[in-house]
Amino acid sequence: MGVNVKDYKPHQPKLPVSRQTEEQLRAIFMESDINKDGVLSKKELKQAFGRLGALIPSFRAYRGLHHADANHDGVVDKDELDDLIKYAYRLGYKVT
Ligand SMILES: [Ca+2]
Ligand SMILES: [Ca+2]
After folding, report:
1. pLDDT, tens only, 1-26
2. Taking ligand 1, which is a single-atom ion, which protein residues have CB atoms under 5 Å away?
């Protein structure tokens, strides 16, 4: 029982680090959809960036929304979420 040392390959993660981080960021944003309407409001974005350790979550939510909200309806939907994730990733946010 236990870990099979022979098959343990620490330098070969299943996913590249960037991909893992993006998936973790996606999970955080999805969890922050408090009212489960499938889109992220500014208030929910603020919560998400707060969880990610942003110094000023409300500012980051504003910037993130401005960046990702392609159809200008004031919320980030599933299609826009990818842009938001890339935005957060570029800024160095990661799940700790
Ligand atoms: Ca929502
Ligand atoms: Ca939108």
Report:
1. 665 656 666 665 567 888 999 999 99
2. 33, 35, 37, 44
